[in-house]
Amino acid sequence: MTLNRPIFDYFSYAFRRDVDKFFIAFAIRNLAVGMVLIFEPIYLYVYFGHSLPLTFLYFAAIYIIAGLVSILGAKIMGRLGPHANILISYPFLFAYYASLFLLPHSPYFLAAAIFFAPVSIVLFWPAFHVDFVRFSSSQSRGKEVGLINVVAVLPAIAAPFIGGWVITSFGYPPLFIMVLLLLLASGIPLLYAKQTHESYADSYGAVFRKILSPGNWRREAVFAAASSEIGINLYVWPLFLFSLAIGFSAIGGIAAFSLFASGIFMLYVGRISDTPDRPWLLNVGAVMTSVSWVFKYFVRTPFDALLTDTIYRVSRSSAAIPYQTLFYERAAQQGGKADEYIVFREVVSSLARGFTFLTLAGLFVFLPHLSINSIFFGGAVISLGFLLFSNLPTMKS
Question: 18-389, which class in CATH?
Answer without folding.
Answer: mainly alpha
